């Protein structure tokens, strides 16, 4: 009653007093470790303001340049800011906005669901294995490379690390190509340098991609070189773009239930027409009792007169207009359930629409139909889609920045994969239920006045998605160009691949200048390919190979029961890792068997090169542990009794005499023993050096090397 709080005492039961304070200030915290001394919304907003999607070590490099900064703060990031949001931002990206509708239209809702489920299951199983490895100790800069090299040895680590580096670099190229596609197709088509001539639309677009892509990659490389802090400042903007775009899609779906947007499609018979060349969807119009032909008539006929000679198919079929987005209540889902694969250059047609076939001789070239630009089939779509589920390593790459990495990495990564899997799977069903099939198969939205197909569904405006996806792909490209050089630098500094050691050097503060230059050059190769659909399967291979070896590393360590294998994450099992590894391998060959073989050949060459040069690093890896286990098992299986005559092998003990320089006095003795056993048995060589071992340590080592050399 005197205003002084009662002293807490171990002898007094203070449960009654504390009960009221248990939930004080905790009602707005998203994760327990997000709460500091004042765990309110202001704390979360403050951390969001400092949000970064850059890998560990990048911010510290920039801090070295900042003379005002006296000390580097300890790791403070929690699960939400440190793992969940970066993973979310890395996983959701260009494929969702530019290709998912087209995949749904081409493969149908059911097959698209299978594609997405397979890819998401693959990343979820990999995340479980990765969580086990990441919680078995601190993972410094290098992330997945560090995990694999310390678990499977320098040969596997170097091979898979370089493959993961190539995957991240090609991902940068894919994001840049996505950025240019959004810019030239949906934001400013007039900015194209190469104009369409004589129906060569695809070639002109590819050349525009190459020119703009080269300019953007130079610009991005300069930004990364000048300072990563500028990328860091924009990280929250890029994240907000992704989240707002997703919300706009869901809001648009809800709106279609009672007020579908007005995006009419023009059909000639059952063929979809591109609305870039005309505005009125009719053959002729009536005004003042006079019949006039429309611009559409003039596209199919040789003059504007009613008695003009017209295309055969145009004369025989009617022009009709239907709604492109009939809405979620329209029942269009049943039409979109099944696949509609097609050849390159075929016309996008609406099923169950009346049509009269014209003569086959009529040319399709200059007519305003919507054509498919590539041949489509199930396995190709898997290769194009898979990059949209990569990005699960974003949390483990920054374990040193986390307050409690052992808890945050598994929780944040698995939650992020669950969230994105739900978004992808629900979007497939919602796209199929809301949008007409011909619009879904129209990759560049030509039938809806050149609008982005996802944008037509979004609320309040298609521009929300266009601008949001533009900035998010820009940000993802910058982050790839920031992360890939650091991965190469980590591999180079380990010294296991001699020819890339130059890329371990950089600016005085550790910025990987040479690695950035190489990354930009490799990225340019992807830009010169110029097609997002061709680049996506390439990086799918490299990521799948990396994920396959993460699963293998976890399975090997678990089966060997190595003494240092004690992950804090307990919800893993070697069968899950083995299943994940098998699924990764299967997906590699499903996507593209020849790309899979090329990726394996590259990894195999690097592996043999490291083995040939003699990997001097000893990390107590699982492959060496596997060899020791096999040797132990074999020795224990040897019978106690005398071996059978067929299994007998000579076992010779040779005592060598060494001179004062520790050289073998009678080397011919070893030649004689090798002839006796004919390469089949076992030779044990020994020698005696007089003196105290500690004093003769160097002589002992030299003698051992000499004996080994003579035996070889």
Automatic annotation (TrEMBL):
Q: Which GO terms describe its biological process?
A: cell volume homeostasis; chemical synaptic transmission; chloride ion homeostasis; potassium ion homeostasis; potassium ion import across plasma membrane
Q: Which Gene3D superfamilies match?
A: Amino acid/polyamine transporter I
Q: Where exactly are the transmembrane stretches of this chain?
A: 77-100, 112-135, 156-177, 211-228, 235-254, 374-394, 414-440, 460-478, 514-532, 538-559, 571-588
Tell me which PANTHER family the record gives: SOLUTE CARRIER FAMILY 12 MEMBER 7, SOLUTE CARRIER FAMILY 12, CATION COTRANSPORTERS
- This protein is called S12A7 protein
Which Pfam family is one of those matched by this entry? AA_permease
A GO cellular component annotation here is:
plasma membrane
GO molecular function list? potassium:chloride symporter activity
> Is the keyword Cell membrane in the record?
yes
